[in-house]
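Hi R.,

Quick one: here's the Cartilage intermediate layer protein sequence you asked about.
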Amino acid sequence: VHLDSAQVQMPGHLKSMKLWSLNPQTGLWEEEGDFQHDRSRRSKREERTFLVGNMEIRERRLFNLDVPESRRCYIKVRTYRSERYLPSEQVAGVVVSVINLEPTAGYSSNPRAWGRFDSGVTSSNG
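And here's the predicted structure, written out as tokens:
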């Protein structure tokens, strides 16, 4: 895999760029490997820095070049029998699905770019 480092818009991302593959069983991105810097000359006048990485393809998967993000969004959901929201009417065992929307620069969310799906079951404490 060769990536021209001039195509990376944020220079700080060059060192943390990783190759990922989507696991079809879990639906999660798995890290495949790191990149090393390689300075190459294609001609006497042109010098480029490439990010070079190796990978072994074991099965047909989707691949992605990206920088790991540590941002998290925590939510707490409580479900109730009615719109009065009384503690005595709180319901446990409800499956709640959450879809976060990946933001695009300048916008709070981009409905065309669903980031991650997750679901959980409510307990007596939400």
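The mean pLDDT is 72.

Cheers,
M.
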